[in-house]
Amino acid sequence: MANFIVLLGPPGAGKGTQAEILSKEMNLVHVSTGDIFRENLKNETELGLLAKGYMSKGELVPDDVTNAMVKDRLDRDDCRAQGALLDGYPRTPDQAAALGEMLREISGKLLCVPYIAVPAEVLVERLSGRWTCPVCSTPYHMVSKPPKVAGKCDHDGAELYQRDDDKPETVKNRIDVYMKNTAPLIEYYRQQGLLAELDGTQDIAAVSKEMLSLVRGRAQ
Ligand code: ADP
Ligand code: ADP
Q: One of 73, 91, 126, 145 is an active-site residue; which one?
């Protein structure tokens, strides 16, 4: 039975950063709904055009669209065989229910839900300093995680960019949307005995270390 992990936490908590590390260590497919939407946006697909308006305002893309996209991704052979690390999904109770159904269908096991807790004032600082690779989506930070060569991705040398939705007005709305729609999932997964809260204000390596030992413990 393949294992699945859901990474929970507000925008800027460090989900993408930790997912990059954890997916390699645990050999899980990294599935980021934000990355899939941005890829579609870049390629100007129908899905990308639909998502664009929501993303630019920091609103959530409707559940039916998002659930269908994730189902399509989890149905593929790599996820079925290796399992996956879900980054940025689910973000609403409806999505959490849909994920439960998808995992039943593919006989996947939700191993645990690490919740990266970070207070709102830290999030704003993190997102305003975030630089992202347009090719592999790796997030960097001007202060806490600078690339080896200024402005270039460590992995592929691509020119880093600042995401449009990381500007302060949109960040504020994304945090509000998170509080309203996504924060209730903390309790939902706690009640299922799957939640593990981590202090996301620690440095990147300390968060990874805690997360890895947690996940390895559950995987046994
Ligand atoms: P999310 O995917 O949850 O939105 P990211 O992983 O993109 O968050 O991280 C947001 C920003 O914060 C990035 O610029 C990243 O380099 C930085 N960051 C991530 N984790 C930490 C940490 N533990 N301490 C300091 N900065 C961090
Ligand atoms: P962050 O890493 O900062 O949390 P993401 O890259 O995960 O941001 O998401 C960027 C945007 O993509 C969101 O603001 C939203 O518009 C859309 N999005 C991503 N995941 C979902 C989801 N599960 N449901 C609805 N919209 C989503």
A: 91
Ligand 2 midpoint to CA 220 (Å)? 31
pLDDT at res. 219:
85
Span 49-104, pLDDT tens digits: 999 999 999 999 999 999 999 999 999 999 999 999 999 999 999 999 999 999 99
Q: Which amino acid is at 20?
A: E
If DSSP codes are grouped into helix, strand and coil, which group holds residue 146? Answer: coil
Ligand nearest to the CA of 126: 1
- Whether 126 is in the pocket of ligand 1, judged by its Cβ within 6 Å, is yes
Six token digits for residue 52: 């664009």
List, for the chain, all residue ranges whose pLDDT scores fall below the cut of 70.
none
Atom index in ligand 2 nearest the CA of residue 87 equals: 7
Domains with residue ranges and CATH for the chain: 3-118+179-219 (3.40.50.300)
Contact (CB, 8 A) for 103 and 3: no
Return the structure tokens found at 19: 């997912």
Q: Of the listed 38, 126, 145, 174, which one is catalytic?
A: 174
What is the DSSP pairing of strand 195-199 with strand 109-117? parallel
Task: Tell me, in angstroms, the distance from the centre of ligand 1 to residue 35's CA.
Answer: 15
Helix (H) or strand (E) holding 86: strand 84-87
H or E element in which residue 197 lies: strand 195-199
Q: What distance in Å separates the CA atoms of residue 58 and residue 67, rounded to the nearest whole number?
A: 18
